[in-house]
Amino acid sequence: MARKATRPYAVRALLIENERILLIHHNFRDPALFGKWTFPGGRLDPDETDPLETLHREMQEELSVDIEVIGEVGRFYSRSGADYLIFAVRPLGPIGPLQPEEIRDSTWLTPAELYEWHAKEKMQFGFEMKAVSLYLKKYPWP
After folding, report:
1. Cis omega before residue 97 (within 30°)?
2. Which of 55, 67, 76, 106 could form an S-S bond across to 127 if both were Cys, CB 3.0 to 4.6 Å?
3. How far apart, in whole angstroms, are the C-alpha atoms of residue 38 and residue 106?
4. How many domains, in total, are found in the chain?
5. How far apart are CA 105 and CA 94, in angstroms?
6. Is residue 5 domain-resident?
């Protein structure tokens, strides 16, 4: 699937290691978001035009890790209508330290565990399970 030419609101990394996916829990001010998890990533800065550049910057800022991009998973829309470009990536080293001002916690889940969390409405944006499903169709586990 070719990437759309329009600049996305934000990017997220479907970070994969040992057939598990990293989810993060942001430090939220909004109590409605407490207990909600998503993929690491963030918004493009006003001067940024390359989503991959933003993705690499965000992985360094949030997780202190360099990444290898596997490929684009797709463009997804949050409940508020913002568009997120999601890329499948692998870490090129250990994760951490985490950025404590932004991230409260992180966890690695299998796709089945992520589905359970999705069913319990623990996902922040609502597109996380769709992104994992599309990833598994495009890039099946070895």
Report:
1. yes
2. 76
3. 9
4. 1
5. 15
6. no
For position 73, which CATH number holds?
3.90.79.10
**Single-letter residue type at 43:** R
Alpha helices in the chain (DSSP H): 51-63, 111-119, 128-138
pLDDT of 4-36, one tens digit each?
458 888 999 999 999 999 999 988 777 777 789
Residue 28 lies in a domain: yes
Main-chain dihedrals φ then ψ at residue 110, nearest 5 degrees: -75, 165
Residue positions counted in the chain: 142
Provide φ and ψ at 48, rounded to 5°.
-90, 135
Stated pTM of the model: 0.89
Q: Is residue 2 part of a domain?
A: no
For residue 1, is it within any domain?
Answer: no
Work out the widest C-alpha separation in the chain, in whole angstroms: 40
